[in-house]
Amino acid sequence: MKNLKLLACAVTVIAASYAPASLAEPPMDKYNSSCAVCHATGVAGAPKTGDVAAWQPRLEKGMEQMMQSVNGGLNAMPPKGMCFNCSDEDYQALIEYMSSPAE
To answer: The Cytochrome c domain covers which part of the protein (predicted)?
Structure first.
């Protein structure tokens, strides 16, 4: 039984090290300093972080369209969402984080 637990632990560690890039941790400092201002509470119609249903119609348009919206601004969201030092990879990780179910 002890060997089975060790094997399960080893498999978990190995699997985590091979996680796809799309599951990368979002830059939480950037989320907290820019995105959370509106997305934590839904200010001005922003889809709330963790509200999968609110994000679904936006995600259905595809990541390319999402990135155009972020970079150019949309409705009350200013261009770049006030994160002027975010890379495209940062934005994608933040979008994935905000559109995932709340834990």
So the answer is: 22-102
